[in-house]
Amino acid sequence: MILDLFAGPGGWSRALGVLGVRDVGLEWDEWACKTRVAAGQLTIRTDVAMYPTWPFLGRTHGLIASPPCQAWSMAGKRLGLLDQPLVHTAVEDLAVGRDTRERLLAACRDERSLLAAEPMRYLHALNTVGEPEWVAMEEVPDVLPLWKQYAAVLRGWGFSVWYGILNAADFGVPQTRRRAILIASRVRTAQPPTPTHAQVAEPDSLFGPGRARWVSMAEALGWGATDRPVPTVCAGGGPGGGPEPFPSGSRKSLSDARERGTWMPRPDGVLLRSRREGAGWKARHGARQNRAADAPAPTFTADAHRWSWSLRSNNQANATVRPLSEPAGTLFFGHRANECTWVAEPASPPTADTDTDTPVVPEPIRITAREAGLLQTFPADYPWAGNKGQQFSQIGNAVPPLLAGHLLAPHLGVTVNPDDFTLAA
């Protein structure tokens, strides 16, 4: 079997399924387990730190581990950074079969920190019977020193090991997600997969084809060409002044329709509630005069100003904002400040035929779980379980399946076909 510790909603499992094999996932979170079951993945709901290792001895071909990263991540309180010496001690002890976890856990500032040492408990037990054949682990970049420690132990057991930082965008993921990766094998030289994409497309050479340009959000979401301007939002409610499909001013109706899949804010048809801008708009974009609050809303022709859409990674002042023509920044959720939203800016300064015209500005609108999943390279119909918060938490913590596929394929003796990781439906 392939054993998947901290399996989450199935990023590694999805990749393995595409490559033609299955794993057994150990996961504690109720909603991640429900997502896995709905996706047809083998799952044991358990605390990885409490589960015995003996059921896996003599039958484990590969081991995968993505320990929870909240305590180590830039998105959290980062108390795990203060606990790093304790985690290193736990790994050192577990590598020789000495279990000091209870004592070390009592000294940890974040109880989740020590979970990053759990894979060593399984690895030590499996190594007594000459298993596993290979190992793949993933975490946030700050955990790289811990992977260095794991690498030293695994090399002492006869593994070839590589560890380092990889950018998911270099492997076709529409997201510049950087992760600390460890790859180890008893039967082949461990090395990172060859990148398939680059920030700027490369020309073919005598040595082979050049790498393709990073995949943009627009491509991943199936929103069409990114260089085509967004149709004007008109007073009638829809592009071109057509009938309004939802009650006037109803953002909830728009959001509900988005979740049902009956409407998406794609570049070839944007329908969003709008607002009038005041002096701030005038200062930035040179509007001639602000419209009175009781004046009728203006109608813009097809030649009026148009919008470019970007994804804002959170609502903090230093949030990453990326246009649709680029990959997203790292998606992380689980805190009220980590709310990803689509925001609009004028592609060019507005024009006005009279002193009474006022630009109509589409309001920011939250990203949906379906969209976030697509940007993680999960399929559009992936069965996320739970409420929106629970779904977003799963998505943000998951390994992008396409990246996982590139990491796992060499161990399985297969080649990744990106077309098999179908995104937008």
Automatic annotation (TrEMBL):
Its EC number is 2.1.1.37. The active site is at C69. Keywords: Methyltransferase, Restriction system, S-adenosyl-L-methionine, Transferase. It comes from the Bacteria. Pfam families: DNA_methylase. InterPro entries: C5-Methyltransferase (IPR050390), C5_MeTfrase (IPR001525), SAM-dependent_MTases_sf (IPR029063). One of its GO terms (molecular function) is DNA binding. It is an enzyme of class 2 (transferase). This is DNA (cytosine-5-)-methyltransferase. It comes from Streptomyces brasiliensis.
